[in-house]
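Table 4 source record.
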Amino acid sequence: MKPALVLLHSLLLGPLTWAPVAAKLRALGAATVVPSLVHVADADDPPFWPRIGAAVKDSVSHLPQDQPIVLVAHSNAGLLVPVVVQAAGRPVVGCLFVDASLPSRSGPTPAASPERLAYLRSIAAEGRLPQWTTWWEENTVAPLFPDPRTRSMVSAEQPRLPLSYYEQQFPVPPGWDHRPCGYLLFGPPYDRMAQDSRTRGWIVGEVPGCQGWVRPAVQSK
């Protein structure tokens, strides 16, 4: 049985960032699932990673029990791949990181570097972060979207994550990467992650010329 593709969106955005890619994959006959992770941090009650694993497991529960899956993670969802591998409840036969952060090689992975955490603390209000697209100047945000309608739809589903989400650490279970793994690079600022993937012995592909951070949806058009 062919594996189903499970597309994991950034925790700062929502499943619409993967919707055009998912539609194209389904048109090609690939079983494709896009779990919604936008509500996993509605309650400010860390740790949040068990809820993420449970949400992904629930999203694939309609598939035949013996159907394996491939995890495809975008942006900061890459840090959660080891957790999801363990929680999926079915064989995970591959992991692909798409312009994504990478989990630690061993030991827990911080959700944010000390420098990033200091910045996030400076913009948080009442323990919650503003929506991600408001972190940047308009001349930075506008080019990320192909049209105003797409921007409106993607922006509307952004969660306001609690600051405590970025104060947690994600487990890295031993053996999570004992399966084919790869990296798909669209461009900066993920060049360093792609190089790290090469040193891990993973296959790295590159699709140049796609600008912006909301890349899966834009690149598929």
